[in-house]
């Protein structure tokens, strides 16, 4: 197994170049050659924004392996983890020994307005995006419900952003490398009340890639690797209005339950988790849905710094998360696996989670309509 | 196993409505309820043209099963067969007992110009679409090479269209139900010489869906079913200019070889094949790459009517093919499976292939950069 990533941010390269660069890094880190790759799982949502869909053959041709088949998997902002799961399933089933999973997105050149519109096509557009409810608005309604129901404040939400920026400063590939305070968040412009500008992750370009191998192949080729020990998928009603309780995401709960069951672990066993924090409120809800804290207790945990790097039982988003590391939507889920790979191999530098043995990735699409959770172990 | 399809054509329904209608038909024909579906493989390319990507949760929510996960698979015009293969792989590996594979496309409302531009993003855009080489132009260059190298004429190409329209007239769900003559094709406006308007398949809207089950599940639930006995994937250099010989498609050859090998069959065993005839020249090349005729002999076969319904060893495109049945690109590959299901169960009415026991589907993306081939058997 290997992993590679471009920097996340506002980048000049094309969607194809980004994907190829990340794929080359991953192949190199796995100590393989492109010719060792047997199949390609591409995760991407808006290739069309850079005039290129049907990415697999173009990426493979640029890697010099045009005869290697692939496909694109899309499930909004959760595409990466869902593509990773398909790759994992194909290897686990014995169809392939070594596959490439690469996630990529390139949207910043379209501008914030166009990007917001594009992203809104990921909502249930008939009821949400088409009525003007783009994602900041949808997550704002979720946040309002959460703050109303539980003992949580806008300052608690801000603490999530402060923590993830603290972590992101330690990540050379992070999009937003800037220390911020609770006051900065509270005073930043309101995007959709109660969410302010600094409660929101940025629009990012970038690509991340991993090589998945069968255990036999990994052992034979003697490269460093980590092990996938749990994989789960979940789904929620597409529109938030279709859910019984907006302060919990059913797809996260279902996916986590499956992954814990397969790994035969509980939330207490997880040393760190890369979770989907597209908005600060999302991370609060994730913390509860993944079982790290009781319902309604995430705000307390954040307030007390329990999820900061090496400060509590579980470090959340050591990479900086979507909030600071960035959110190139097709790449995000694969990027979480790249971070997990580096953490479990002890290569995360200043943001290293001490004695990390078990890591989790959690990535969802839209407001959590689709979700995948994976658990990894140091070998 | 079950199968359902909307009519193909210029349709009023939304991309979601089309997919849901086809899915409902497939579930009903399998004598199942939506709640029996465990996962959804959605095949779609340009949901964005109807303002909706992230289709799986929206489709599942509309089917009344919002907790059932899914994903979208895209590989240009080959998306359907590649999504079908992923669905097949997941069931074959024992991950699920019953899954839904639904392909859908809705583009005609954008007009011919916009549709042509959208489709060109499926080519290697840097070298092809971006330089003005849209698909009619690319297939015209392939056709010119073929006509120059082999004993084939524009009239032979026209014969492919005439045959597929003959078949399509017998298919109530076909987009273009009109008898045409060789003369009609030759005299139709030149799109990209040597291809005329009637050498090209139409832009279509539509959706097709199938239910894939494990053998055990199918037997237990006692619905009619057919068996997948071979599945293959192939890839070619993304741009035509990167290929050694433009008159053959490497991805078809690779995919067919794998499928034949798995099924332990040869081309002589195939009773009918649904092949990818986006342009008449494509069907000629498919006939050779799939092994039905020697290289350069397809024109002779067409001229002598050997691939017409029940006239030779193998009936090609009994449904009417992309040319007459239509080409809603995300749906096409799944639609081929729907036709195969109906043929092998003896339910194809006037276009029934006599004593059909073995059927093949062949579907590719772009100019054949990606391809999947499947072989099915009557149980």
Structural class determined from secondary elements of chain A: alpha/beta
Secondary-structure arrangement, i.e. CATH architecture of the largest domain in chain A: 3-Layer(aba) Sandwich
CATH topology of the largest domain in chain A: Peroxisomal Thiolase, Chain A, domain 1
Question: How many DSSP E strands of chain A?
Answer: 12
Protein chains sharing the most extensive interface: A-B, 61 and 61 residues
Largest sheet of chain A: 5 strands, mixed
Shape of chain A: globular
**Terminal Cα separation of chain A, in Å?**
12 Å
The strand line-up of the biggest sheet of chain A is 1-7-4-2-3
Count the helices of chain A. How many? 13
C-alpha-based Rg of chain A, rounded: 19 Å
CATH class of the largest domain in chain A: Alpha Beta
The unreliable regions of chain A are none
Mean pLDDT of chain A: 97
CATH-defined superfamily of the largest domain in chain A: Thiolase/Chalcone synthase
β-strand percent of chain A reads: 15-25%
Number of domains of chain A: 2
């Amino acid at each position: 197994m290997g992993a590679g990533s471009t920097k996340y941010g506002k980048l000049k390269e094309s969607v194809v170049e980004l994907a190829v660069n990340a794929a080359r890094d991953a192949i190199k880190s796995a100590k393989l050659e492109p010719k060792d790759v047997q199949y390609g799982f591409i995760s991407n949502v808006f290739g069309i924004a850079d005039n290129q869909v049907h990415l697999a053959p173009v990426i493979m041709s640029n890697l010099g392996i045009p005869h290697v088949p692939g496909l694109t998997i899309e499930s909004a902002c959760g595409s990466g983890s869902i593509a990773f799961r398909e790759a994992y399933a194909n290897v686990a089933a014995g169809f392939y020994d070594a596959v490439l999973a690469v996630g990529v997105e390139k949207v910043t050149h379209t501008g914030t307005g166009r990007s917001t519109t594009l992203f809104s096509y990921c909502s249930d557009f008939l009821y949400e995006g088409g009525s003007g409810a783009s994602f900041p608005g949808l997550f704002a309604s979720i946040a309002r419900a959460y703050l109303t129901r539980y003992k949580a404040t806008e300052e608690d939400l801000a603490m999530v952003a402060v923590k993830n920026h603290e972590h992101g400063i330690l990540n050379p590939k992070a999009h937003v490398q800037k220390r911020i305070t609770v006051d900065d968040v509270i005073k930043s412009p309101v995007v959709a009340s109660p969410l302010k500008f600094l409660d929101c992750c940025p629009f990012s370009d970038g690509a991340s890639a991993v090589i998945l191998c069968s255990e036999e192949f990994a052992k034979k080729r003697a490269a460093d690797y980590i092990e996938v020990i749990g994989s789960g998928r979940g789904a929620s009603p597409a529109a938030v209005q279709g859910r019984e309780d907006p302060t919990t995401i059913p797809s996260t709960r279902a996916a986590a339950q499956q992954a814990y069951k397969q790994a035969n672990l509980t939330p207490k066993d997880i040393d760190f988790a890369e979770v989907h924090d597209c908005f600060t409120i999302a991370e609060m809800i994730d913390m509860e849905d993944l079982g790290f804290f009781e319902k309604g207790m995430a705000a307390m945990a954040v307030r007390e710094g329990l999820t900061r790097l090496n400060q509590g039982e579980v470090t959340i988003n050591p990479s900086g998360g979507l909030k600071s590391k960035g959110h190139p939507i097709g790449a995000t889920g694969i990027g979480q696996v790249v971070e997990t790979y580096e953490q479990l191999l002890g290569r995360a530098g200043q943001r290293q989670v001490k004695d990390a043995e078990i890591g989790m990735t959690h990535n969802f699409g839209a407001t959590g309509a689709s979700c995948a959770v994976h658990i990894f172990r140091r070998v």
